[in-house]
Amino acid sequence: MAGKVIVITSGTGGVGKTTTTANLGVGLAQLGRRVCLVDADIGLRNLDVVMGLENRIVYDLVEVVDGHARLRNALVKDKRLDSLYLLPAAQTREKDAVSPDKMADLTAQLAAEFDYVLVDSPAGIEHGFRNAIAGAGEAIIVCTPEVAAVRDADRIIGLLEANELAKPKLVINRIRPRMVRKGDMMDIEDIIEILAVELIGVVPDDEEIIVATNKGEPIVLNSRSRSAQAYRNIVKRIEGEDVPFLALEDAGFMERVRSFIGIGRNKA
Amino acid sequence: MDFFGKMFRGEEPRSKEVAKERLRLVLVQDRMSLSPAELEALKEDLLTVISKYLEIDDGGPEVNLEREGESVALVATIPVKRLTGAARTGR
After folding, report:
1. What is the distance between the alpha carbons of residues A19 and B65, in angstroms, rounded to a whole number?
2. What is the pTM of this model?
3. Would an 8 Å CB–CB cutoff place B1 in contact with chain A?
4. Does B20 contact A154 at a Cβ distance shorter than 8 Å?
5. Is B87 helix (H, G, I), strand (E, B) or coil?
6. Chain B residues within 8 A of A143 when measuring between CB atoms
7. Residues 6 or more apart from A75 whose CB is under 8 A from it?
């Protein structure tokens, strides 16, 4: 049975698509799944750097699509996990170097060999986005609790539905529980109410992620931080497990009960 | 919405409430998704149909999508000739 092709997208830039793609990929591979990460951000590749694999690139996606390299030779094997591979983007080309049809072919080829193909979408809604969604069967939208990000996510949801990627799932990234408590940041319920999509995960803002990226070691590899736990929970939900959402802070029993009940309503 | 209640009581609404309200309103507009060209075409089609039954006063048809709270309405104001008694009696 062919693997699942999941696109990770957002609309807005800088909300954590690449970090999310990397960590979900690592997390799924840690469970023994065969995973291929695809960097669809042609011209601005970053998945390689976040994964710490930037020195291992030989060929890239565009060279494969152009027939200058074989897919098998372009895939970079992860240095830590046996079943995890990366297809890097080209750094010196532009988004129109690949067409949606060719992307769909490529992801279909990969889906024949892998359990999961995770496509890291570029920001925006133009060619790069259309390429990234071309072969996908499911979509995960990454959004931060900020006005511009939520607005863009809404637009993306509309575009995904128009492209038959209905029922995208949402990851709310970089939530700051203290700000939420003070009323200075929208909370999970606010965002779900506005966007009306299913929630698949909430990742707290975590300085550790910057450290992890500095080192090229995605945080789920070896961290017990809350963001790592959050990513692991998303991985489990992708695998079909029903995981309750984390209490975001140890703020006392009542707060925990309240957030569990409030968030529990939105369980994936 | 307590957002307005708070304003009347002189409390400043929390910024996240402001964000939520603004988002709600801006998304109503965003989701409308008719380009100006499409709106123009809609207006012309509408006038064509109505002029089959009524004589339209060229002076002032107006067709607009308007926001009313959280809902959106297509509001068309189409002046029609020769329907008021004033024309007949000269008043």
Report:
1. 41
2. 0.80
3. no
4. no
5. helix
6. none
7. A36, A85, A86, A87
CB < 8 Å to A183, chain B? 14-17
Q: Does B20 touch chain A (CB under 8 A)?
A: yes
CATH of residue A32: 3.40.50.300
pLDDT in 10s for each residue of chain A, 268 residues: 789 999 999 999 999 999 999 999 999 999 999 999 999 999 899 999 999 999 999 999 999 999 999 999 999 999 999 999 999 999 888 878 899 999 999 999 999 999 999 999 999 999 999 999 999 999 999 999 999 999 999 999 999 998 989 899 999 999 999 999 999 999 999 999 999 999 999 999 999 999 999 999 999 998 899 999 999 999 999 999 999 887 665 444 445 555 555 554 443 3
> ipTM, 2 decimals?
0.80
Which residue segment(s) compose the domain that A27 sits in? 4-264
Shortest Cα–Cα distance, A243 to chain B (Å): 28
Residue in the block written with tokens 């067409």: A99
Q: Hey, is A85 helix, strand or coil?
A: strand
Domain count, chain A: 1
Q: Does the CB of B21 have a partner CB in chain A at under 8 Å?
A: no
Instruction: For A175, list phi and psi in degrees, rounded to 5.
Output: -80, 140
Written as six digits, the tokens of A150 are 């939520």
